[in-house]
Design brief:
The protein has 3 domains: 4-49, no CATH class; 64-126, no CATH class; 141-211, 2-Layer Sandwich (Alpha-Beta Plaits), CATH 3.30.70. Helices cover 26% and strands 17% of the residues. The chain is built from 6 helices and 7 strands, in the order αβββααβαββαβα. The protein has helices at 4-13, 64-71, 110-126, 153-157, 184-188, 201-211, and strands at 22-29, 32-38, 44-49, 141-143, 163-166, 171-174, 194-196. The mean pLDDT is 88.
Length: 212
Amino acid sequence: GKSYQRFYEESKDKNVEFIRAENVEISKKGDQLIVKYKGEKGEKNSLAFDMVILSPAVEPASDASKLAELARISQGHGGFFDEEHEKLRPVSTSTEGIFITGCSHSPKSISDTILQSEAVTGKILCSLIPGKKIEPEVKVSQISESFCIGCKTCIDVCSYGAITFDEIKKVSVVNEVICRGCGNCVAACPSGAATLKHFTFNQLYQEIKEAV
């Protein structure tokens, strides 16, 4: 965080000792607690203390995976909910209208949580303007039934769960309401059945041809 370095320096000025260690083991000897650890250079050390306070790691909620599956949002490192784009959409998820904030996203300080919550509030208020028309995504994938071979590769690579398989026709089908037009299925489709609306191969070829 912004003030963490200052906090670290102030703690050092108050004679707080910081030790880089790994493989820490705690045992009891008489009235004292013995902390054994491996130092920065790999040397084994031990220190005796009257009290040891453990700082456990922050973990996502136990039902985070179930919620992610229900809401169709992805999970990142450690099982925390993942943002759609780290720079462009830092509080949005892969499902439109669902946002993340605080420790559901990653371990955060109080100040960082407040800032992220304010960003989420702004996003929600922008979509609740009276009379504002909700414009659907036009850059969505489409799958040609004539070319689809039913391999289901597109289903495996879809990050949004927007593609299902029609067991009767034996072809993949895109739910345009859920699709966000990422293009994963287009790149992975071995038969060329998947294309992006307004970004077909012929359209892209003509754009490149005109540019050259």
